[in-house]
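Recall that a protein's primary structure is simply its ordered list of amino acids. Everything else, from secondary elements to tertiary packing, is in principle encoded there. The following example makes that idea concrete.
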Amino acid sequence: MEFEKVVRLRKSVRNFKKKKPSWKDILDAIDCANQGPFAGNNNHLRFLIVEKKKVIEDVADVCEQSWIKQARVLVLVCSDDAHLENLYGERGRVYSRQQAGAAIQTFLLGLANFGIDSCWVGAYSDDLLKEKLNIPQHIQVEAVVPVGFEEGREKKSAKKSLERTLYWEEWGNSKRPTGFEEEKEDYRPGK
């Protein structure tokens, strides 16, 4: 599928069919996420796949979002910041969050490319989730991603227009300088 089409196709789905997606497609989407940029080329991410119905229900309760119970698969994206912090100090935590977010987005796009629906969930009790899934305390849970196929196709909500998200040269300046100014700066007589 073409990249722009995949980006526009991806949406947050909170109503899943009972049909289970292919675990091979899920693994391929995770592998796509593993190809992203990582500080110092240190991939600090781990993916926890949950397929047992009871465990999915427990996670939905911890997230306080009952719709998650409909998902046939959950993927938790987790990170271990220790190595990045050893290499980069406090900045390592920032790099960790940045690359986790990039990887989650790539994972979501990978799922969309395979026709699989998902939703990025960030609301949960870290401690309860770690306790339920036996995740070590030093590991950060970055996202819970319910995975499946949408029950009935809802229209994707409109996103902000490009013009409403851009500033030029300084914060708050929504007008791009004219091309004439750029050419004028680059103009050198006798060139």
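The chain has one domain: 3-154. The mean pLDDT is 88.
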